[in-house]
């Protein structure tokens, strides 16, 4: 069962619109990584879920999301 993704657009904008540039990059990176994990879990269902696990590193998550 896939968990619900709760990414409010206002929250995303607030995470990016700060004076702290490094913090903004880190926050948006973490939110993007959450989205990729949710996307992979939602697409890898049924028999595919036995073989597809969510990777730990960002590049592997992005590559797997593109492949799905």
Describe the protein's architecture and organization.
With 68 residues, this protein is mainly alpha-helical. It has one domain (9-67). Helix content is 66%, strand content 0%. It contains 4 helices and no strands. It has helices spanning 9-16, 21-43, 48-51, 58-67. Helix 2 (21-43) crosses helix 4. The protein starts with 8 loop residues before the first helix and ends with a helix. The mean pLDDT is 87.
Give a quick rundown of the structure.
This protein has 68 residues and is mainly α.
Q: Any descriptors?
A:
mainly alpha; 68 residues
Q: What's the number of helices?
A: 4
Estimate the global geometry from the Cα principal axes.
elongated
Kindly, what is the distance between the CA atoms of the first and last residues, rounded to a whole number of angstroms? Answer: 17 Å
> What is the SS-derived class?
mainly alpha
- Give the SSE string: HHHH
């Amino acid at each position: 069962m896939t968990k619900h993704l709760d990414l409010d657009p206002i929250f995303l904008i607030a995470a990016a619109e700060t004076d702290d540039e490094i913090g903004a990059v880190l926050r948006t990176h973490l939110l993007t990584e959450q989205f990729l994990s949710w996307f992979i879990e939602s697409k890898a269902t049924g028999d595919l879920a036995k073989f597809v696990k969510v990777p730990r590193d960002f590049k592997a998550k992005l590559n797997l999301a593109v492949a799905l």
